[in-house]
Amino acid sequence: MPDNTPATNGQTDLMTSMMATLRTWVNDGAGGVHQASFTVDPDQLPTLRAGLQQAQDKLLAIRREAYPLQTIPAPGDDEVSKQAVRRFAERVDGGNGTLLNAIDDGVQRLQDIIDQIDALTKTYQQADQNSRM
Predict the structure, then answer these.
(1) What domain of life does the native source organism fall in (predicted)?
(2) DSSP state, 4?
């Protein structure tokens, strides 16, 4: 996944300068990803972080529940049943586009945003502290 380092063009309007900008990548529905960004009031960063952490925790819980799907037994001893279970297991964990891969990607994207929030929060706190001196 590409770097989420914010890019600047040297121009910042007053409203944007009062907001925290977070960058991420979104799926385009056709197998590709595009960079996206959104702005948040700095005072809302802790609330956003908590919500993203909850979402990440839910994804990790889903992953724990999905992992055993790779080893479900075939419903019968025939070759068709065995092949169906193998194909199902490959869709659970077989690389790009599989269930576990999608969950891991979601967890990582959320972590990238959480890391940005942590960095921005520290920056805003430092700026606030410096303004009081």
Answers:
(1) Bacteria
(2) -
Give me the residue spans of the domains in the chain: 42-131
Write out the two tokens for 7: 């890019």
Burial track 71-93 (b if 16+ CB lie within 10 A, e otherwise)? eeeeeeeeeeeeeebeeeeeebb
**Partners of residue 27 on adjacent β-strands:** 33
Count of other CB atoms within 10 angstroms of residue 110: 21
42-131, CATH topology level = Helix Hairpins (1.10.287)
Over residues 58-107, the pLDDT tens digits come to 999 999 999 999 999 999 999 999 999 999 999 999 788 899 999 999 99
Q: Residues 6 or more apart from 123 whose CB is under 8 A from it?
A: none
Name the pTM for this structure.
0.75
Question: Which residues, listed in sequence order, are joined to residue 34 by a DSSP beta bridge?
Answer: 26
Helix, coil or strand: residue 15? helix
Half-sphere exposure of 64 (CA within 13 A, CB side): 6
